[in-house]
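Thread: quick sanity check before group meeting

JM: Hey all, I'm pulling together slides for Thursday and realized we never actually wrote out the predicted structure for the chain we discussed last week. Dropping the sequence here so it's in one place. If anyone has concerns about the input, flag it before I start.
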Amino acid sequence: MKTRILSIISSDAVRQRFDRLSGTPNSDVKSVSPTADVWTGLVRETFDLLITTRSDLPQPLDEFVDSLSVLPSRPQVIIVTADPDPAEHARVIAAGGLAAVYTRLPDRVLKATLAALLRRVRAVQELWSVEDAGDSDPALSDFVTESPAMTELMAMAERVASADSSVLIGGETGVGKEWLARAIHMRSARSVAPFVAVNCAALPEGLFESELFGHVEGAFTGAIGVRRGYFELAHQGTLFLDEIGELPTSLQAKLLRVLQDGEVWPVGGEAPIQLDTRIIAATNRDLERSIKLKEFRRDLFYRIGVVALTVPPLRERREDIESLVMGYLERFAIELKRPIRSIEPDALEALLQYSWPGNVRELINVMERSVLLSDSTSLRLGDLPLGLRVKVDAALQVMSVGPSQALDAFDDEWLTEPLAAVTKRVSRRIEREYLEKVLRLTGGRVSETAAKAGVSKRTLFTKMRDLDLRKEDYRQPRRASTYRN
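JM (edit): ok, ran it. Output follows.
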């Protein structure tokens, strides 16, 4: 992100000199004279470094530094002093300030001193951004795959990581698009700068510009302070725009303008902010089809998709399922402090045969749940979610019959369809039969049915609607009460 410098110095000449010498392409400087309103308004400002004098402060230095430490941006303080007094510098450091700077230094020396201090401020910013993001940074080298499609994808990701070209990552929900974007960022020269992830589908249309580009105080009702936009937060780093296909076309035009100009105008601002931000976007939609339907701008598509990567769904790289299962088994056994060290063959076979509609995200969820609930040293079939076990058991039963028997079970017209269509029809038949039996068992009670199937009520309602199942058809008639006199 850019380093925001706030200069509050009563002397116009000193303030202007520090503004001139502290300004860089990676910093924005704002300077004001000290007034009561300025000091009380600091809680509404967003800044990283304050340059001021001890005489201009509204309270003792140590108390003032303590009051700044609770602000979200955690700003640091430089005290400008007229005399080169080592004791003053020590007092500033002891109070929690960054440094005391001697104002009578030549411009060349003072500029170099401020540049060194700004590097320290930026290093702290980057450290905090790493702490906020967590310490589990993915790397392209972490991923081991036996899938030819994934091997080719990772090789291409390795090549594009070192460039600054924009990247468009496609793939179904749950395949790991953000993971890949983070890994590309960590492999690039921008890895020391922030990686900022934004879900475009979650951006309110009325606040789109404020969220992405920032705003100044008073720009609109409720803008009580300065806000950094996501673009500025990702300065010199990577901005990940997830679900970009969900952006309304009116917002697409505003985003395109920023990508073309390389600068953002904060809402209510009087000047643009020049930024250096790499864009990686992701979508689970077919954007070329969206372009034909006039739902996505062709020029924006070309701007964000210099390089296009598509992550294959898990069902198309089944050779990786076992290694993923074993990797997450080990990880969750450690994290959850469970004694599990292995997996039973029938449980592994069930996981290998499952279709994984939720892809890797679903697999992670299943493994965490199963490890958490297991009371054995080896993961068993009974530890897996009921819905997965029943669905896999039914599929295995269909596959266990001989080829001629399996084909006899199909309608003749199925033989003219491709395998994917037949697989979908078989899966639909199994789902319907399973849900019918569970609904019959629960008497049509949706909550109980969802719990037994290991799915949410919302998912169950969706499947019932798709399969034309009505809970009323499975309700058991109430028995008449019998009373004894």
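AS: nice. The chain is about 45% helix and 10% strand. The domain at 410-485 is CATH 1.10.10 (Arc Repressor Mutant, subunit A).
JM: adding both to the slides.
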